[in-house]
Write a structure and sequence with these properties.
Blueprint lengths: L1 H14 L8 E12 L3 E8 L7 E11 L11 E21 L1 E3 L6 E5 L3 E6 L4 E6 L3 E6 L7 E9 L3 E5 L5 E6 L4 E4 L2 E20 L3 E2 L6 E7 L10 E8 L6 E11 L4 E15 L3 H8 L3 E4 L6 E11 L14 E6 L2 E7 L21 E2 L18 E4 L9 E8 L11 E14 L5 E8 L17 E6 L5 E10 L4 E10 L4 E5 L12 E7 L13 E5 L5 E2 L2 E7 L4 E3 L4 E2 L1 E7 L4 E4 L12 E7 L3 E9 L16 E6 L4 E5 L6 E8 L12 E4 L6 E6 L7 E5 L4 E5 L6 E5 L6 E7 L5 E6 L1
Parallel strand pairs: 35-45
Antiparallel strand pairs: 1-18, 2-17, 3-16, 3-18, 4-14, 4-17, 5-9, 6-10, 6-13, 7-8, 9-10, 11-12, 15-24, 19-27, 20-26, 21-25, 21-27, 22-23, 22-26, 28-29, 29-32, 30-31, 30-33, 33-34, 36-41, 36-43, 37-38, 39-40, 39-42, 42-45, 43-44, 46-47, 47-50, 48-49, 48-51, 51-52
Length: 744
């Protein structure tokens, strides 16, 4: 029983999910479904029946590898809802009254009996054989696809050859038919349910090779607006547009009971598909032409969702995938929105450091910016409010145009465009705020580049009410630790969001490693709907380092200025308040590529951020230029390397750590920390160890590895050289404290 409880705790730490309450329903449709070839992978999901309302619906899309390993290239995957509209449609079908040997013909010439003449070379005489009968299948005129009879006829209306005495063809004779069958065509209609396809998520697969089978990355999508088509039995499609080994899809739908900010009246597709870009005129007039929609009588608000990604370039950088352009949302002939359809931060891809495989596997950070996507990441969906342009019971014209450009080459570029018109009944609340995300600290995959952290927390809030949000009280901290408050001020209109950086925590320790946020008193008043004012997330502590260590840097050939040898790469140390602690002055001017630079830094107790920046956004190792390979390492003084950053890091490295056993203004009671993390041969456990008596090491599956007993003092060095590389946990006897370390 104890082991089961411990495994559950480890599961929470590894998953990094926000803690779910009793009002949450989780439904899995795809469970590690292998998408190994181009096509659709459909599963039926049994969702809530619609009797409840939901304030939030999330799709957790975990992309992983099949057992044979992942495909190496960046392919598009789409998650779609195949919605049964309840409407019936039909198509005209035509079938013949009969078929001849399984084939439809206009007419058939037949005989009572017919023979085929031929010259027998053995007897040197004319001979004949009866013709092969023809099978004629007749079909019912009322049910045109149902056969009702089968008859056999002999062919007629053909010529038999006449031979001379030695077998030469000298003439022919016509075989007169005894009948003519004239076929007729039966018209009928095929009826079918109308299925409307709605895209709810799009993720591009990573780019790499020999990616290990245990690779996984979770993408989280807010799909609350699609609640009306996620009821009862629904077919969910995972589409994969690639080849080779493929990828796997795990889809978990999270339904949180409550009242949404506004009720959806209808969802309609505006554009849906992949459209080739021959030229601007063809694209706008034949691909993304204008569409008309009726605004329902009880609609007071409307929005357009738009997801568009560019693909293909045929070695011409000025085409879809690598062409930074705008698109324009026109409503009733008026320009309503202009959107830059571009992802400019591929160099900060959170799939870093690359997922290393002992057999040489890798995933590139793959730094080149693209048309609204990066390899391994989700495509951005843009929401465009058009409430000011609608009139209830009237129609609107929607036309989305792309900025025109010319391209050259032989392979036509294309855009995958999914756009929906959503109509709403109006705001459900006047004065309300919502916590939508905790960005730092967080264990979510998408925020992994700058977590774990010991610096300023970062959250996202949203105005959940129709009244402009100007002030808000934010309570936050670690469960069981010190209480913190922050008074936010700003100006957020209905459904607008803002990232809020909170002041530093005085203490990162509590009874649980869980960070929480609670919103109070929006605009100085009681919240109309406070159910969504609280969020919490499990987090990991930053690694603990000594108060003096060295930065060993080897610069590659990437320079900003070849005259001064000004390197693209530099590094700094920041204190937790954002002030500068140390910088790599020697790297700015006059550097010698491939030389190794060593800087020894002294630290006081506290929290620090080590940030490496590459102005070329291609790190110290990018295989598609001639800059060579550099390195960044942290080393003990004296001693060995305890942190080796992979040089393929794109735009930057952000690494948070702590120096000293505790911060000067923290008091840790009955707790311990582990450093360095990751470790190679030895870890140090620091704390009031006599209070614990026994500590236990378990592996990532919760299996017992080692017991540490007869503890005393404030530090214990543990030899881990014989452990296999991977993740391990050290837990106190009562399982109240769990700390993770990584064996390199």
């Amino acid at each position: 029983m104890v082991k089961k409880n411990f495994t559950l705790i480890i599961g929470l730490l590894l998953c990094g999910l926000d803690v779910f309450s009793s009002d949450t329903t989780m439904i899995r449709t795809h469970d590690h479904v292998d998408m190994t070839w181009y096509g659709n992978y459909d599963k039926i999901g049994v969702f809530p029946d619609g009797s409840e309302t939901y304030r939030k619906i999330y799709l957790h899309y975990t992309m992983g590898c099949p057992s044979s390993g992942c495909a190496p290239y960046d392919y598009t995957t789409k998650i779609e809802v195949l919605h049964n509209t309840g409407e019936i449609d039909s198509t005209l079908q035509q079938t013949p009254a009969f078929t001849v040997n399984g084939v439809g013909v206009d007419t058939l010439i037949i005989s009572d009996t017919s023979y085929i003449y031929y010259w027998d070379t053995l007897t040197s005489m004319l001979d004949s054989t009866i013709s092969i009968p023809i099978e004629v299948v007749y079909f019912d005129t009322i049910q045109p696809t149902m056969p009702i009879d089968t008859l056999y006829y002999f062919p007629g209306g053909f010529y038999n050859m006449i031979f001379d005495s030695i077998g030469n063809i000298i003439d022919s004779i016509y075989v007169n038919p005894t009948g003519l069958l004239i076929n007729s065509i039966n018209n009928w209609y095929s009826y079918f349910d109308v299925i409307e396809k709605y895209e709810i998520a799009r993720v591009i697969t990573p780019y790499g090779g020999n990616i290990p089978s245990n690779y996984a990355f979770k993408h989280i999508f807010d799909i609350t607006d699609f609640e009306s088509i996620l009821q009862d039995s629904v077919k969910i499609r995972a589409h994969y547009s690639g080849w080779g080994n493929g990828w796997s899809a795990t889809l978990d739908f999270e339904f949180i009971k409550g009242i949404p900010p506004r009720n959806v009246n209808s969802i309609e597709n505006i554009y849906s598909g992949s459209y080739s870009y021959v030229n601007s005129s063809d694209f706008e007039n034949n691909k993304l032409n204008s569409q008309n929609f009726l605004i329902q009588p009880n609609t007071t608000q409307a929005m357009i969702k738009m997801t568009a990604t560019g693909h293909g370039f045929d070695n011409n950088i000025n085409a879809a995938e690598f062409k930074p352009i705008d698109y324009f949302v026109n409503v009733n002939g008026l320009l309503a929105h202009t959107q830059f359809n571009w992802n400019d931060d591929c160099g900060e891809n959170p799939i870093y450091p690359y997922y290393e495989n002992p057999n040489g596997g890798y995933i590139h950070t793959w730094i080149l910016d693209r048309a609204n996507w990066c390899p391994g990441l989700r495509a951005k969906t843009f929401d465009h409010e058009i409430t000011d342009y609608i009139i209830p019971s009237d129609s609107i014209e929607i036309d989305i145009d792309f900025q025109g450009y010319s391209w050259s080459g032989t392979q036509t570029p294309s855009y995958i465009v999914e756009s929906q018109l959503l109509q709403y009944q109006g705001s459900n609340f006047n004065n309300s705020a919502e916590i939508t995300d905790i960005i730092k600290p967080s264990s979510k995959d998408e925020y992994s580049r700058f977590n774990p952290t010991c610096g300023k927390p970062l959250i996202e809030i949203r105005n959940y009410g129709s009244t402009t949000l100007n002030t808000l009280e934010i309570e936050y901290g670690i469960i069981g630790g010190s209480l913190h408050t922050y008074n936010w001020s700003g100006s957020l209109e209905f459904l607008e969001t803002e990232e809020v950086e909170l002041p530093l925590l005085t203490n990162w320790h509590g009874t649980k490693d869980v960070f929480y946020v609670k919103l109070n008193n929006p605009n100085g008043q009681a919240d109309d709907y406070d159910v969504n004012n609280y969020m919490e997330t499990v987090f990991e502590h930053v690694p603990q380092y000594q108060d003096k260590f060295a930065v060993w840097t080897t610069i590659n050939n990437g320079v900003i200025n070849s005259w001064t040898n000004e390197s693209e790469t530099s590094w700094v140390f920041f204190k937790d308040d954002g002030s500068l602690h140390a910088a790599s002055q020697q790297m700015f001017l006059g550097i010698v590529p491939q030389n190794q630079y060593r800087d020894t830094i002294d630290f006081e107790s506290g929290c620090y951020t080590f940030k490496v920046t590459d102005l070329g956004e291609n790190g110290l190792d990018y295989g598609y230029n001639n800059d060579g390979v550099g390195s960044i390492k942290l080393r003990n003084v004296p001693g060995t390397t305890f942190k080796d950053f992979h040089p393929d890091f794109g735009s930057n490295i952000i690494h948070n750590f702590r120096v000293g056993s505790i911060l000067s203004n923290e008091k840790i009671i009955h707790d311990f920390i582990i450093y360095p993390i990751p470790a190679k041969d030895e870890i140090v456990i620091s704390g009031d160890l006599i209070k614990f008596n026994v500590l236990t090491i378990v592996d990532n599956s919760g299996r017992f590895v080692k017991e540490l007993s007869s503890l005393s003092g404030s530090q214990l060095k543990v030899d881990i050289s014989n452990l296999s590389r991977g993740v391990y946990f050290i837990t106190s006897h009562d399982k109240s404290i769990i700390r993770k370390f990584v064996k390199q």
